[in-house]
Amino acid sequence: MNGLFKLLLVGCIGIMGYLCVESIMGPIRFEEQKNLRDKATIARLIDIRKAQVEFRNLNGYYTNEFDTLISFIKHGKLPFVVKVGSLTDAQLDAGLTEEKAVAIINKGNKKEIEKNGLVGFLRDTIFVNVQDTIFGKGFNADSIKFVPFTGGQKGIELETRDLINSSGYILRLFEARTLYKDYLNGLDAQEVINITDRARKLEKYPGLKVGDLEEPNNNAGNWE
Question: Do 214 and 154 fall into the same domain?
Fold first, then answer.
């Protein structure tokens, strides 16, 4: 009996020791994994923001359809102005502007070009691929609609909204977001519940998002 009691005591001490260590290491491991997933999710939201900004620059509005945004990344073209040469202070003082210089070059009159000192001056617009220019070759455009670490099973939410301010000006807004419970799925459930509750008590979005549907914020992320 004495030996059995000692054995049980040792077992209890071992279990208590394990629980004590786990109570310390559990939250540490959760934070490590959360930070890893935060970075991946933030990177995904930043890619969406980049694409939306370029899409609006060309089309005048944001899209709320990922298929449209993905197609834009894959097949869209961006205008790029090639600039060779620059106007001198003397040319500017004489009233020559970029617009006037381009008009002279486009006329193709060699004497006028030489007279204005524009030999070798060039302004031309070429079109470059969105994917290669903004994201780099090899970028997987199809992935931007999925929440990281979900195996493509959960999608990022994408919405747009037009607001009219007091001056009658239309404000184009967009928001891309994902909840803690989505991109932290599989980690300690209680920890996820805790950070979700803290965010809601502070009246903040319980997850990561970029942009805002309620007011202009220069498309900032809520982590910035």
Answer: yes
